[in-house]
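During the no-cost extension, the postdoctoral fellow (Dr. R.K.) reprocessed legacy sequence entries with the updated structure-token encoder. One reprocessed record is reproduced below for audit purposes.
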Amino acid sequence: MITDYDVAMSAMSVIIIALSQPPKRRPRRFWIRPSLRRGRQLYRTSELIKDLILDEADPLNLEYRNDVGFTNFFRMQRSDFQTLLDKVGPNTCYRDAIPASERLAATLRFIATGDSYHSLMYVLKISKQCISKFVPEVCDAIVEALQDYIKVRKIKQH
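Re-encoded structure tokens follow.
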């Protein structure tokens, strides 16, 4: 006959065995998705910005007619984008860091459209993990850079 003591001892031995074995970790398959790496090598976001600007140029005399494509994509004029980029700040010293212009472009596209990080990943060829890390950082940098121009509501803590 099995007693409560036997059941408790069996359960304890199973728990001890489970805790003594290290957890099985799946090895990381890749650092950057191959499709995103290929896409970033072929078509960087900075190339998208250049293409949007060149699309608006008159091919005969290269004067800019308007900023319809750029404004439609980023929901702001090129001059405002450049001003904001100058205020947000320089690039970092990490490995092949995503340039500040691309980080700002991705953040503005996220704010303007409300697209998911997953959707932006395919458009901008930047992983959703990177986007999810730098969008809040860039938003904080924008608020800090423009604090003289915008008022941020302060929340009272009780």
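The chain has a mean pLDDT of 75. The CA atoms of residues 4 and 10 lie 10 Å apart. The remaining legacy entries will be reprocessed before the final report is submitted.
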